[in-house]
Amino acid sequence: MKISFFDMKEKEEISFLKKYLKNHTLKFFSQSIHDVPLDQYEDSEIISVFIYSETKKEILSKLKKLKCVLTRSTGFDHIDTNYCSMKKIAVGNVPLYGENTVAEHTFALMLNLARNVHKSYLREKEGNFSIDGLRGFDLKGKTLGILGVGHIGLHVIKMARGFGMNVIAYDINQNHFLAEVMHYSYATQEEVLKKADILSLHMPLNNHTKHIINEETLSLTRKGIHIINTSRGGLIDSEALYNFLKKGHIGGVGLDVIEGEEYIVHEEELIENKEKHNEIAQLMITKEIMKHENVIFTPHNAFNSQEALKRILESTIENINSFESKGEVKFSIS
Ligand code: NAD
Description:
Layout: E1 2-5, H1 11-20, E2 25-28, E3 46-49, H2 57-60, E4 68-71, H3 81-86, E5 90-92, H4 99-114, H5 117-125, E6 143-147, H6 151-162, E7 166-170, H7 176-182, E8 185-186, H8 189-195, E9 198-201, H9 215-218, E10 225-229, H10 238-246, E11 250-255, H11 261-264, H12 267-272, H13 277-291, E12 295-297, H14 306-326
Parallel strand pairs: 1-2, 1-3, 3-4, 4-5, 6-7, 6-9, 7-8, 9-10, 10-11, 11-12
Helix pairs in contact: 4-6, 10-13
Nicotinamide-adenine-dinucleotide (NAD) is lined by residues 74-75, 98-99, 102, 147-153, 170-173, 202-205, 208-209, 230-232, 256-257, 300, 302-303.
């Protein structure tokens, strides 16, 4: 089959895929799909993208031979799944590559905030060894609120229990057996927001969850709340987040994802384009949030461990083989 891979920067990853997909015609592009001229991939039967590729109708409708879209991620909000389903284009993702990986990163952000590691690091680089203002707090005994108890959320809960935290969680689907054996409890979304010392988001981004953290829901939270988001930037209304940070309501924020993250790499082009008012305004807020001393930002890097990456590539190969032999993807998003 003719397969085009986008967002592929690492030589080792390309070699790995070439080794296990010898029977196919492969093309690799380091750029995202919307940055590659169409004539270079318009005959693709399968495309494999990552989160940076906005794989929407405008592009998909031009690929007349396309049968299957695979994303090398768990989240698939960058793909126009409605269009794919209308055109009977299969869509697959990698559902299970990194639940421990992302959960570990969630704790990296949480521990950094709790013990002011980011501030200590900056001071030490300047030769300042004072501990003034660096007093942190213990995780033990704190209440962790989780929104979205899926694969990643459950790993976060397991780790939190190891730290002696109390966990309350909200999910539209609840597994009371797991709650009992893992010693966490379910509550309404409102209760979670009201009681959490630290709030961690692990739900997908969709029409129901967009801006689930906004002015109204933030006003329910405790003063000094810490918020961690390793899921998708769009879950948090960034303007509301900025306002609550500015007025000192939020104690700290650990973000691996943020609204407007896609604009940061294209900042110069964006600022030159006077028509993109909304995008420029979003970029300004995003950058203000990232500059705040109580915010730690990692550039959508939670998935990025050696082990997780190997699992991503293996699942992608499995999906391609399954699509070729049975016409179905093994990890379908529907
Ligand atoms: P999952 O599907 O296993 O779990 C998501 C959970 O959210 C499910 O239990 C679901 O019932 C719940 N949910 C859905 N809608 C909800 C709502 N409105 N309110 C409450 N709960 C709701 O997914 P996962 O593997 O745990 O991944 C979670 C998210 O993490 C993904 O959607 C993806 O966006 C993100 N992610 C980020 C990275 C990264 O590198 N930062 C890597 C992998 C995944």
